[in-house]
Design a protein that fits this description.
mainly alpha, 61% helix, 0% strand
Length: 122
């Protein structure tokens, strides 16, 4: 969920997670809707489209990068990812930073769109 979300959204998120259900903030839900439901009807900016299709040899993602992207998009914290991959929280943060640099993304929304569009998450 977005760090600018309303307090009521945070309460809803906590209740959902405590109930064992996933929670996606409004921003994430909108992205999922745009990418999967609206499909080709949704116009995507030329810049965003170029980012999604410009993974060259120099920016190819490693297996670990893909694992981390998938876990980040599922909402796991750096600590949880580190525990699963048997690496430190700091190493996870470093991987996340390098992934964002490789893909020229400035925020998590771009990363989630990328993951959805490229089948890393569904």
């Amino acid at each position: 969920m977005s760090k600018t979300a309303a307090k009521t959204d945070l309460v809803d998120a906590i209740k959902s997670v405590l109930g064992g259900k996933p929670y996606y903030g409004k921003d994430i839900s909108k992205i999922i809707y745009e990418v999967y439901i609206a499909g080709s009807k949704q116009e995507v900016s030329a810049d965003a489209e170029a980012k999604f299709h410009s993974i060259t040899e120099t920016t190819r993602l490693t297996t670990k990068d893909i694992q981390i992207i998938e876990m980040v998009c599922r909402g796991l914290t750096a600590r949880e990812i580190g525990d699963k991959l048997k690496i430190s929280q700091r190493t996870v943060e470093s991987h996340k930073s390098h992934i964002m640099e490789k893909l020229c993304f400035k925020n998590m929304v771009d990363l989630i769109k990328f993951a959805l569009k490229n089948g890393i998450i569904s």
